[in-house]
Structures
1.
Amino acid sequence: MKKARVMFAVLLATMTVALGACTGDKAAETPASHITIGIPQDLDDGLDPHKVNAAGTREILFNVYEGLLKYNENGELIPALAEKYEADADGLTYTFSLRQGVKFHDGSTVTADDVVYSLNRLAGKETGEPLEGALANIASVEKTDDKTVTVKLTEPDADFLSYMTDAIIPASNADPETSVIGTGPYKFVSHTPQESVELESFDDYWGEKAHIKNITLKIISNADSIVMELKGGSADMFCRITDTQVKELEGSDFNIEKGTMNLVQALYLNNKYEPFSDPKVRQAICYAIDPQEIMDYVSGGDGTEIGSAMFPAFGKYYDESLNDTYNTDIEKAKSLLKEAGYENGFEFSITVPSNYQPHVATAEVIVEEMKKIGVTAKINLVEWDTWLSETYSERNYEATVIGVDASPLTARALLDRYKSDAHNNFVNFSSPEYDAALTAALSTTDDAAQTASYKQCLEILSKEAASAYIQDLPCYVAINKKITGYKFYPLYAQDFASLSLVTE
Amino acid sequence: MKYYIKKILYLLATLIGVSFLVYAAFEIIPGDPALSKLGTDATPEALAALRHEMGLDRPFIVRYLSWLVECFKGNFGISLSYNRPVIAMIGDKLPITITLTVLSMVFTILISVPTAVLMAKYAKRTLDRTFYVADQVFMAVPSFFLGILLTYVFGMVLHWFKPGGYISYSKDFPGFIAYLIMPSVAIAVPKCAMSVKLLRASILEEADKEYVRTAYSRGNSTMQVMYRHVLKNAMIPLVTFWGMAVADMIAGSIVVEQVFGIPGLGRILLTSISNRDYPVVEAVIVLIAFVVCVMSLIVDILYKRIDPRMKRTDED
């Protein structure tokens, strides 16, 4: 018995020492340069920057990979691996002068050959299958000299430069899927599937170096535990939390940064579904919906009203006057329904992916608003994958609430989908006038003419009531008070390099 | 021997049946793994190419049979969303769920046996009655709810642990075990309550038997009789329960893992279902079914060891 007690004492002592040593070690590392950022899903679609689709993966790889150009927080293209570029007047030839001495994360220097290799890989020059569809337009990529790369296009493309933000990777990297080598301010350290991703700042970065040494991206797949993990100290930051979570974080150690989601949120109407095939019915729905009421209910009044398929971050194309095409008018809505032969109303269902709380809340308001014009709407909650295949891909729905984003950050990405024969025209919109305006916009390289055509497209969508456009949702980021410098981008990008710790 | 062969054939049939049901379920529910991976920007060409690459363009039954044949060869396929072998993916997460189950089982046994003995000793007295009421309450509380309560009380209010602060076993093993204590308690408590109820009743029943009186008459103390004679016999019904409890704990940990943010089998199963990554779902479900079958087999065997009477009835 005595022996056992002694053993226990010894064991306890060893454990105390061991534990003490553990905490001691951690304190010795500069703890200030490590933060944990919660992310809602794993980087499960691979890490090859040319093959990644998921927005959640792309916004993180923004820190690891860079293209010849990159976007700044205003959505403007700025030089990155190319110091400058020139476009010929015919819009067919682009000459990029490369920045010298840029290092890859493996220590090698970026050469013109790496650039040629990356662009050819994206354009599918060797395989015949372009990894970036829009770059199939590339006729040739040539290394003019060690500092210059010339790209020739088959036909002019006003959006070409926005694709030059695609990653430049080393030609020597045989397997970009597993060995992640870029030029960004953060290098990739490790990935534990379904748990976490580790990033470390890159000491040889060509531009302004990152401030925080180590970043752990922790996967918090259960939305209900986000607030708990933030408050409990398991995560220092989480992007895109809901209005409810914002309220739950009030009075805690977190600041809430407010931005915009850069989405076109609408009650999308299936234009092939009777009665939505009649523009008058669609217009009636637009008159019945009050975006302000929705914004008040969904996010306490935050959000930006939109009147067509364009969000305000696009400045140039966004036309605020379209917000007034349909100012809420119940009488007008009822008379339009009468003209269309639906004076007694009708029934339809709104399919909403259940994992997007703001869209579900929006649908709830719409159901009430529809009652006012004698139309019965009911909500059909589905899981995201079901929405993706049945609603979006097979277009087997009546109406749906969702936000459409622009990826890449071009007007085309938002407007292409309304072309009668577009593969992603999930609202089944069809208008010869629209198709003509869109074709005009795409075929010119003159900026003013293009802007005018795009604006015309937006006007047609609004007048024809392709769908009932509502708002660009607000975006809330919870960020621990010890961290500062968060920047919103109008595209899928989380700029970790701009973050720094508050020095006390 | 014949008995074991029969049991193993049953096991195989169950596993094949389960795997077919899972495959069929994915065929019926909407959703497409290729679309899930490519998202809203997918072009029809890219989608078709990926579907072909994933083998989704083949008929359902062909896909199922070829999957089954591969399984018998020990190849459980490649995860559609991660492009990694399913075995490796599950292998990474299995230690987490196993540790959680073992810890829960240890807690169940350590707490339930002494409690039941104590209650039986003071049967029908205040202590027994108080414990009995508490026991009923704990039996009725689901693990996930208990998990939320524990997180709130010990995590948010008392700060005994960091909610969601899971530590990977490969990084810091003691830290990993420490984090799993609360979830294990949440899983163990309802099982514990059930064990106490069973064991208490069983002890009281045994205590009335003649051999106990004989043991007392030989001059043994109460405790000696309890541990040497009564408990040994009283444990028999509990073995069955514990065997099934282990299987139940693995399945139950799926929910509790979510509450505590543990990336074990549960998370892998849930994300794979929402990604329509059916090779992974198949493997996880078949694994759980396998554990359930094997546990019931072990219970049968143990039963015969403990209770010689079982031997004759079963082998006929």
2.
Amino acid sequence: MKSRKISRGLRDLLPPELKVRRFMEEKAAALFASYAYEEVMTPTFEYLEVVEMGTGGNIREELFLFMDREGGILSLRPEMTTGIARLAATHLRDAVFPQRLYYLSNSFRYVQPHLAQYREFWQAGIELLGAEGVRADAEVITIAVKALQEMGLDNFKISLNQIAIFNSLLDDSGLNREEKDCIRSLVENKDLVELSRVLESLDIDDELKETIAILPVLHGGIEVLKRLPYVEKNQRALAAVQELREVYETLQLCGVIDHIVVDMGVLRGLDYYTGTVFEGYSPELGYGLLGGGRYDHLLGKFGFPCPATGFALGMDRLALLLKHPALQKAPRYLVGGKDFAAVIARAEELRKQGFAVEIDVEGKSRQELERKLEGRENCITGGLIYV
Amino acid sequence: MYDDYLTIALSKGTLLEPTLEVFKKLKLPGEGINDKSRSMVFTYDNERVKYIMCRPTDVPTYVEQGAADLGIVGKDVIVEQARDVFEMVDLQYGYCRFVVAVPEAIKNITLKDLNYKRAATKFPVIAENFFRSQGLQVEIIKLHGNIELAPLMGLADMIVDLVSTGRTLKENRLVELIKIMDSTTRLICNRVSYRTKHQQIQPLIENMQKLSTGGSA
């Protein structure tokens, strides 16, 4: 057997890539911890019925499915939030809320692989469980902004929306389930051409049509909320707009407003979101960097009703933007010599001082080692010590 | 790599001329562009606009990956490729329609009689989705051109193809059995560019919408 194949969409990570990854993980973990979040881990695969509590069964073709020997259907986790909701509903029933949890984990989706989209992907994320309201939303969004900043990114935007605006308008539209699903998917995919055609054919209030048609393209500062003519007629939508304003104002207090835009087209793909939602983008990459929002009903599906909000940051994508992160590395020495006991002693001494030491295990002469060092000055920054 | 130019992927071929006419009306630069020259990139520094010349089937790829912010391409290509891009404006020109066509000799056949028959097409995704949505099992034979030849030579019982005037069908003694969908030219947009270059893109979209719905920009 000489097969060197790996399954499509997977990859090996070599030291240079892994250094960047660990750098990101350390920054993320330190930031999350500074906001009093604590790390959790959930199993890499779960029962399909658990996974679909979160995904709603819409993305079954994206799941890696297999069976256990008792006939249960299992899925590699396609995201982390559902597993953490299950974890909280199982283990944290008696805990004091709000609970703040974070994770650094891999998830799996059977997607078309391309740059920045792999079938195994790594995320850093947080979940704030048991807190309602705009302050909790603002905390999570603030941490998202700071996470990107900590990792050295400054040119990025977080698009902010309140999903209940769109949902309330659609719920009260008098349309049937099929029509609603159709409009939802057209708005999510920003197929404006088909959307305007479908709206044209529907028998609903003209102002409502106009509002639904404008939602996917409404983008800008908080003032864009004035451009929703129909919202005044829908109490729930109006309340959601008011909440979005409050989140925006709170983010001003948090000092991150420079990175925030209101974007009514952000609906997020997963079924579980209920309130404030957001996504992060950099102009240097054609794909989103992070996404999250409020999901107040998910824990209830596991028998533990509890409001929640959170986000996940795609580390594979972010790594593409961090070409030269300020990686700290200890000076590295190469230690060699005839007397191996002396070599070991010297190496230990240097290691104790915090240096990285590579010892010559091949018993080479000074000249040979000097030759070996040529071209590796960037790596062996401390140089050669021959004892 | 990021720059503040707006990059637009243009479809070479029949769509180019009407596209440039629209651009002219929108006061977008366009001097010297043609798809005959060797240049594939046209840059206009004053206007901060860049055009790239692509095969129509490549336009959604450039836009999805963010190598271009916007693209001009037919709905037929968008549907066949199912790329993750925003579809912003129907530019109306470049009309054609997807049809199922059969040889004249069996023109009175009904759709359900096509179950378990063979269809030749350049658009396997559209063909497959259509037949499935009708509850039919049809064997799709993917060809790269001259689809009309397939039924003549007994390779397929029918074809799924793009038709604009219907002349080619007639010349090959094929008749349109059913229309699957209409297609016109669309403006598509990268998901992220739409957000990060919103101030450049949104006015352009609005002007195009006005223009294509009959008003003037």
